[in-house]
Specification:
It comes from Flavobacterium frigidarium. With about 350 residues, this protein is of the alpha/beta class. The protein is built from 10 helices and 16 strands.
Length: about 350
């Protein structure tokens, strides 16, 4: 059985690195846990770090977090669906919102539960996912300001999540100006300007973040140490908190080209018939006990740089080990580095064992 391993000390190092730089800049931050898909083993590791705020896009995961530690502030990081309102008020201390109708439902439910529900108003700033349009923001804010049992915790935006729009200094300055406009119009103070995600960390490290942006939501950088501007690892962080391990279940020298009449494969792949010049070429192929049900090959990379991933079916991954300096045998484990989306597939699979290293 293939398994994914979380390396506890590397996770701790990354967390302490981030916590230090955020505290030195008076920035509040929370861990985005959606990558963990509600896995209790890994959630306990996050909580053990001393995290005080956890963000997730699944209310079932927030319920699990509250069951493990009720003192953690939970944040629901997408606009709530009508059918989820009751559970969101019960298990999320804060939610991201863009619709007056939804906030009215949250207000009514919060009254029933005798709670004050906090909200972040998300603003559209070019990525074209969720967000109130800037020209409508003042009217929107005014219409919900006095709703009972609702506390407007702040404003925020999401960038680079759908269309790839980067959180430049100009974008974050614009978000800061929205804060100033609202505060001047309504004579209030906005506690959070939540404009920071993993992709904005390089701006912060260069001290190019507007001071008003005082709240970050961090997932990918914590688990992968990645600078999303350059694609490189942030100096001082680990990029291998997670590793995938899969077992070799067959090793055979086989032709490079399929033999026979070609059609569409069981997973929808179509191959092109090889020329006669290609016939006779072979490679040493290994089959691993993992497939497309659990992962996507483009999101994993073997730790052995001499291994080439050939292709995958639903339950098996085929690799070329011809050029490897290691004499692999059936039963050996192959380890892989994982990209963020690769980890998301693996952690969402019930067929992949989750372990601690």
């Amino acid at each position: 059985m293939a398994f994914i391993k979380l390396y506890r000390e590397k996770l701790k190092d990354n967390y302490q690195f981030l916590d230090t730089i955020f505290k030195s800049r008076n920035i509040q931050w929370g861990v985005v846990s959606k990558l963990l898909c509600g896995n209790e083993i890994y959630l306990k590791e996050i909580i053990a770090l001393g995290v005080k705020e956890i963000h997730d896009s699944r209310v079932s995961n927030l319920r699990k977090i509250k069951s493990l530690d009720p003192s953690i502030q939970t944040v629901y990081i997408k606009p709530p669906a009508k059918r989820s309102i009751k559970n969101i008020v019960e298990f999320a201390d804060v939610s991201f919102n863009t619709e007056i109708y939804t906030i009215q439902l949250l207000s009514e439910e919060a009254q029933r539960q005798n709670k004050v529900h906090k909200i972040i108003i998300m603003i559209e700033m070019g990525d074209l996912r969720e967000g109130v349009m800037g020209e409508e923001l003042i009217a929107f804010y005014g219409s919900i300001l006095k709703m009972p049992n609702i506390e407007i915790r702040g404003i925020g935006t999401n960038l680079n999540c759908l269309s790839g729009i980067m959180p430049t200094q100009d974008k974050l300055i614009q978000l800061s100006l929205y804060k100033q406009l609202i505060e001047a119009k309504f004579n209030i103070s906005i506690p959070w300007v939540s404009g920071g995600t993993s992709v904005a960390i390089p701006l912060m490290l260069k001290n190019a973040r507007p001071m008003a942006v005082n709240h970050f939501r961090i997932g990918e950088a914590l688990f992968f140490g990645k600078d999303l501007f350059t694609g490189e690892t942030i100096e001082g962080m680990h990029n291998d908190v997670f590793k995938l391990y899969s077992e070799i279940i067959e090793i055979t020298e086989k032709p490079d080209a399929p033999i026979g009449e070609l059609g569409e494969s069981g997973v929808g792949t179509s191959y092109i018939a090889s020329s006669s010049d290609d016939l006779g070429e072979t490679s040493l192929r290994a089959i691993l006990d993992i497939g497309l049900l659990d992962m996507q090959p483009q999101y994993i990379e073997s730790d052995d740089s001499d291994i080439t991933i050939i292709d995958a079916s639903s339950d098996m991954l085929v690799i070329d080990i011809s050029n490897s300096k290691t004499a692999y045998k059936v039963g050996d484990l192959i380890s892989f580095k994982i990209k963020y989306m690769g980890a998301l597939y693996l952690l969402n699979s019930d067929y992949i064992e989750k372990t601690i290293g």
